[in-house]
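TL;DR need structure tokens for one chain.
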Amino acid sequence: MSTTSAHRSPASRVPAVVVGAGPAGLATSWHLARLGVEHVVLERDGVGATWRSARWDSFTLVTPAWSARLPGLRTPGDDPDAFLPRDTFVDLLDRYARDAGLPVRTGVEVLGLRGEAGGYVLDSSEGEWSTRAVVVASGALRLAKVPAGVDVPPGVTAVHAVDYRRPEQLPPGAVLVVGSGQSGTQIADELHRAGRRVLLSTSAVGRVPRRYRDRDVFAWLHHLGMLDQTTEHAPPEARRAPQPALSGAHGGRTLALQQLARDGVVLLGRLTGVHGGRLRFADDLADHMRGADAFAERFRTQVDQYLQGRPAEAGPVDADPAELPLDALPDAPTEIDPLDEGVSTILWCTGMRPDTAWLPDELLDPTGVPKHRRGVTPLPGVHVVGFPWMTHRASGILYGMGTDAAHAAERIRADLTS
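>> reply
TL;DR here they are.
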């Protein structure tokens, strides 16, 4: 790809610096270039690094190709409803940066940010960069989150989803997957398909059907205007909730806990700790299953209400077999001995957090997310893109990153020309 190698000395000053060459950073760079703003994109690894290094081999986007609305992006293939595999998507980002001639410098790690007269200095592995505008596009999902205070029993290997690649990587034996969000349910399904015995410690996560009334869930979210719902009009619990369970693998599938149970995955409640080498779980599996069912039902109700008076748009009410209820709820023990169950691996699917240690402490909230209002931070000239719910529901996904990137680029041009 057409990036500048890190051994060359950078200019001492550039009007704007974008930190991070993921989708949000590249989209911001695209808009800055079109606005004629001189800038550089600093990336410590390679373009789309997190997508390369923190996703398993069979990972597939859960969003259809048409929803990757980065400015100027041309998605591959003839099927806009296809779900892109990891490597295809990474290649797409590489080509996007190259074809647009974006000024990406790879292999440059940003180590700190400090103010100077008229702007900021970025300390980096390549030296100091002096600038008037900084865009934080280093990603909300970079570092592994692991529950505090849980001691892994002796003889059990612990792996986080960011380091998981394929079933063969794990030691022989059963796998306890902790967390039933998108990563947890997808990996549990993959491990089961590979012939592994899988135990899934569930969590309070919603579910949506992959398709309903002849359309993909993302098509409905678009038609209903839900992807464009502004942050101000969304309740706090919606902004805090994890993404609902869903899969783009095998052409796109509904991931329902009841189907995983029918397939033979052992469902458990939330992991609460380890005592005397035994794993303990909350008695909340039934609550998690009911909550996921209720979430899916609310979505279907919203679609049905939208279709009232629009008979031409209403496809048949197609029941998804994966969502069929079980004859009886699984008997979920609240304590197990990993040796008795043959558990050799605990696979943490407990989320990720941003890598923002290079930012001043006063700019970060307790979770490491930069403090901002609609992408504008308390530090003049420092902007944020690519984080969830920045301005609207889709701020943190490919559908909406480009919108926030455009706003950031316009603010920077206005500041630099004022």
